[in-house]
From TrEMBL:
One of its GO terms (biological process) is bacterial-type flagellum-dependent swarming motility. Belongs to the flagella basal body rod proteins family. Residues 9-37 form the Flagellar basal body rod protein N-terminal domain. This is Flagellar hook protein FlgE. It is found in: Bacterial flagellum basal body. A flexible structure which links the flagellar filament to the drive apparatus in the basal body. Residues 88-147 form the Flagellar hook protein FlgE/F/G-like D1 domain. InterPro entries: Falgellar_hook_FlgE_sf, Flag_bb_rod_N, Flagellar_basal_body_rod_CS, Flagellar_FlgE/F/G, Flg_bb/hook_C_dom, FlgE/F/G-like, FlgE_D2, LlgE_F_G-like_D1. Residues 216-384 form the Flagellar hook protein FlgE D2 domain.
Length: 814
């Protein structure tokens, strides 16, 4: 290899070190550039020329070249600012920006963003930041079947937005009103048995519903419930309304005033706690109506005018105006919420399109298991603004020129979240219930349609008072002494075995005693006592001045017998003698037919004719109510009398029962949410209350959290998520192309970007009020500058040295 080659070797060193000095200079120049990532240059030996030597083949290097320029993508220090839209990434990832009018995306760590006049979030070059839009328009739909909500151990997703990444552009500086679609309460209720403030023996599970009276002020007394939660909700115009939920514990068994059991709730495991709840608004704000027919949207008219819940010009205010939902909450022995019922007005009705539900709100049959939302929560309609067909979730309507009915009510429903969702299909157990038939006045009726009353002896015909018939066909009545039938003016309660006969037992109101008619004496006598003689025979017993006696055949002195009064017996040497009485005193006739005076003898023992000493009438053909199977409703939850054995006297006993398992429409498959309501507190308290509606407002501030969610803060006090900033990352950062302006673009070497959100799946978090500084290390760059300079100088010496050597060679010619 010649000397000239040595010169070119040094030239390659000059070129390489010159390039490196340019890179070091660029790093130092960008020491204050936000988000800048420094570079370093690596050299490699350029090429080798082969040669030979005494020891064998040789290779002699011919210079150096730039081998690689590698970026340092480590994070720079964070610098605080005064702008909430200044963003830094604490960790891995890039922001994405797009140039207006182009589909080309760029990636940057420089987060000096701001909203321009067109409400776009841009960088200083006007490129729009990319993110996912968050939909805040709340529109509930009815569930069409089972709701897939997981397994009960829910995990919050880091993704808030939806769709594909797009330009972050605020739709408006103003916020339109949003009607409330979700109301959530976390209740801490007691389970000490002292929370039952309102009781109804006839319908204990609907006591609050029955007590509510919209014509009173307040509609429900302050001491009639054990807990209450309140929250403001909003209609579609942004107007606020007070929504109140009342809670009252339902004792699973209640004693009556006389110590008897007033009712028992069956069908629940031991230790369970039941609460009734009632969702309400002020009655004056209830603009629902019912019974309207033939609504014409084009003319806003009806073929039959509706009746208003509140202040109807004809019927006045319905008692249930203001009630939106009624139901029960079921807690297990640990106080966990395990089931729920929910009834709303006309929920399972089938009115024709453009007709309202026809049932009256004050009839509990009109309150049926409600529909569920697509979120698995029970819904109700408030209809604050008086929409014609949004009074019940069952109503539908058609618009002008169409024939397909749709649900107007679906646009105005709210879902109630107390911590339990239904994930099964159908929504409710027991869509039908077997209940006692009733007439228009609510009285039970028998198979013939006759109205029935109820007493402790069971059902009776209201018109006749008859409970049924005994074996002899007598029509039976009843009073506090038991069943009886009328025999003329006498009340016959049963029979008694006496003298081999079975005379009827009646009652004497004058003496307050039972009696039977003794036909063995003339004239017939009312007998109030019985006795048993030594032979075990029962006799009618009477009393006179000489004592208690019964009539019988007695011996006479000197022989013969006669009919006389027997006061007892005397033991005459082992032979019982009948004791009689005359003017001289008590005596008996001995075996010689002689009269023997006696003072001490066994007097007869009498017992009053009482209910436990006679055979009571058997009500062999009892009056019974007729049963029917019909759609489940609040009316299905009333108590029903069921046979519960007989008394000691043989009279039937009845117990008042609500069978929750068969007559309550509870959720089929439940999923308890984290933070669900519970019944294990010492005092009842509302632990959390939220709703998603709001009035109109204007944007007053923007906040960005560590997940990259951009929140709008509005003048109405509402804070809403608007966008979530999209994060990008690459498998090979070294393959990114630097476009200047703190921008990178992807190449085949970098690969397609991986997309995600801040704080999730390896992406760093976003820091508002911060920007990332350049990661250039000044001390390192100065060292690189010095070594590069020395390398350049050394290579220049190589050139001058070779030049001197060449000059020597040229001088050899002289």
């Amino acid at each position: 290899m010649g000397l000239s080659a040595s010169m070119w070797t040094s030239v390659s060193g000059l070129l390489a070190h010159g390039n490196k000095m340019n890179l070091v200079g660029n790093n130092i120049a960008n020491v204050s550039t936000i988000g800048f990532k420094s570079q370093r240059m690596d050299f490699n030996d350029y090429l080798y020329m082969s040669g030979s030597s005494a020891s064998g083949p040789t290779q002699i290097g011919a210079g150096v070249s730039t081998y690689a320029v590698l970026g340092d993508y480590s994070q720079g220090a964070l610098e605080t600012t005064n702008s909430g839209t200044d963003l830094a990434i604490d960790g891995n990832g890039y922001f994405g920006v797009r140039k207006t009018g182009s589909d080309q995306k760029y990636y940057t760590r420089a987060g000096d963003f701001f909203f321009d006049k067109e409400r776009k979030l841009v960088n200083p070059e006007g490129m729009v930041v990319q993110g996912w839009k968050v939909e805040n328009d709340k529109a509930l739909t009815f569930s069409s079947g089972a709701t897939n909500l997981g397994t009960g151990t829910s995990s919050e997703s880091s993704y808030v937005g939806s769709g594909s990444p797009t330009d972050i552009v605020l739709s408006s500086w103003n916020l339109p009103p949003q009607q409330t679609t979700n109301v959530s309460f976390t209740m801490g209720l007691t389970n000490d048995g002292n929370g039952d403030k309102t009781t109804s023996a006839g319908s204990p599970l609907t006591a609050l519903f029955d007590l509510w009276d919209a014509t009173s002020n307040p509609p429900i007394a302050k001491d009639a419930f054990s807990a209450k939660s309140e929250i403001k909700v909003y209609d579609e115009g942004g107007n606020a309304h007070q929504l109140s939920v009342y809670y009252d514990q339902v004792a699973t068994s209640k004693e009556g005033t006389n110590g008897s059991t007033a009712y028992t709730i069956e069908g629940l495991p031991a230790g369970y706690t039941v609460y009734e709840y009632l969702v309400t608004i002020p009655p004056s704000e209830d603009n629902r109506s019912f019974g309207g027919e033939g609504y014409d949207e084009a003319t806003n008219t009806w073929t039959r005018d509706p009746t208003k819940f509140y202040d109807d010009p004809t019927t006045g205010t319905n008692k249930q105006a203001g009630v939106l939902m009624s139901g029960q909450l079921i807690f297990n022995a640990s106080g966990q919420l395990v089931n729920q019922t929910a009834y709303t007005f006309g929920a399972t009705g089938t009115p024709a399109a453009n007709d309202q539900y026809a049932g009256s709100p004050d009839s509990k049959e009109s309150w049926q298991p409600t529909k569920l939302s697509s979120n698995g929560l029970p819904v109700f309609t408030a209809n604050f603004t008086g929409q014609p067909l949004a009074n019940s979730v069952s109503e539908t309507m058609t618009t002008t020129g169409t024939t397909t009915p749709f649900s107007q009510a679906q646009n105005y429903i709210m879902e109630l979240d107390l911590g339990l969702k239904n994930i099964g299909s159908p929504a409710w157990t027991n869509p039908t219930a077997t209940t006692i038939k009733t007439d228009a006045q609510g009285n039970p009726v028998d198979a013939g349609g006759n109205a029935l009353g109820v007493s402790k002896y069971g059902y009776y015909n209201l018109a006749t008072g008859f409970y049924g018939k005994d074996a002899a066909g007598h029509d039976l009545l009843a009073d506090d002494k038991g069943f009886y039938y009328m025999n003329g003016a006498e009340k016959i309660y049963g029979t008694i075995n006496v003298n081999g006969g079975t005379p009827n037992v009646a009652y004497d109101d004058t003496t307050s005693s039972y009696y039977f008619t003794d036909t063995t004496v003339t004239p017939n006598a009312k007998c109030y006592d019985v006795t048993v003689d030594g032979g075990g025979t029962t006799h009618p017993a009477y009393s006179d001045a000489d004592g208690d006696y019964y009539n019988g055949t007695v011996p006479q002195a000197g022989g013969g017998t006669t009919n006389g009064k027997i006061y007892g017996t005397f033991d005459d040497g082992g032979t019982p003698r009948l004791v009689q009485h005359d003017a001289t005193g008590y005596f008996y006739i001995d075996g010689a037919d002689a009269r023997q005076a006696v003072t001490n003898f066994d007097k007869i023992a009498t017992s009053k004719v009482k209910p436990d000493t006679y055979v009571a009438i058997d009500n062999t053909t009892r009056v019974a109510p007729d049963y029917e199977t019909k759609a489940n409703s609040l009316d299905s939850l009333k108590t029903q009398l069921v046979a519960d054995g007989v008394t000691a006297e043989g009279n039937p006993k009845y117990k008042a029962v609500v069978n929750f398992a068969t007559n309550a429409a509870s959720m089929t498959t439940t999923e308890r949410q984290e933070g669900a309501s519970a019944a294990n507190s010492k005092t009842s308290v509302t632990q959390n209350a939220t709703q998603d509606g709001y009035a109109s407002g204007t944007l007053s501030d923007v906040r960005i959290d560590t997940s990259g969610i951009i929140y709008g803060v509005y003048s109405n006090g509402t804070t809403l998520p608007l966008y979530q900033i999209t994060m990008y990352d690459f498998q090979n950062n070294q393959g990114l192309w630097r476009d200047g302006g703190n921008l990178f673009s992807s190449t085949n070497d970098s690969g397609e970007p991986r997309i995600g959100v801040a704080g999730d799946n390896g992406f760093g978090t976003t820091k508002a009020y911060n920007i990332e500084q350049s990661n250039v290390d000044m001390s390192r760059e100065f060292v690189q500058m010095i070594t590069t300079q020395r390398g350049f100088q050394a290579n220049s010496k190589g050139i001058t040295t070779v030049d001197t050597m060449l000059e020597t060679v040229i001088g050899m010619k002289r």
